[in-house]
Amino acid sequence: MESEGHSVLLAYDGERALQLAFTAELDVILLDLMLPRMDGLTVLRRLRSARLNTPVIIVSARDAGPDIVQGLDTGADDYLTKPFELDILLARVRAVSRRVPTSQAADWVFRDLRLKPTTYQMQRGGRTVALTRTEYVLLETLIRRAGTVVPRQVLIDEGWGPESDVSDANLYFFVRALRAKITEPGEEELLHTVRGVGYSIRSQDSC
Fold it and tell me: Is 0.85 topped by the overall pTM?
């Protein structure tokens, strides 16, 4: 990482990682899950509960679907399984680093769903929900093209960059987490899957 121009702080256990996250001005956190003294998920949960929105990429040997879903649901911006190529990690770091909202950006709105660029929050049904940067980028892309089907590759390019190795399965995990935040029981479903093509934000009346 340093050979690519990044300044790096190392933490060899979860407690030190949490301390650095709160005291150092970090652009991105690479977080292993199997840390001594405090596991990575606990570190991530405490960061997000304290509303620290530094981008977090989980880097873990745990590659099972439930592990990936849990990491994303806890607040990770990306999830990279070991082993991996360094250029892939660097591409993921670049992708999450450039997802910074401008303070002048206007809210994105579709029906009763409001997306707030300045805070990475979604509002619907009287509730405010925090989004990860990846979730925010995906949802903004869908709302910008509301009423149309956004191909999976377009979402991958927007969320991670054209040079990324993100698969349809990775995208599925993010969309699943996003759908759970958008729609609660009794609410109209707004995020729809178009099998074999991609995803769409639209009302059920137009399906």
Answer: no
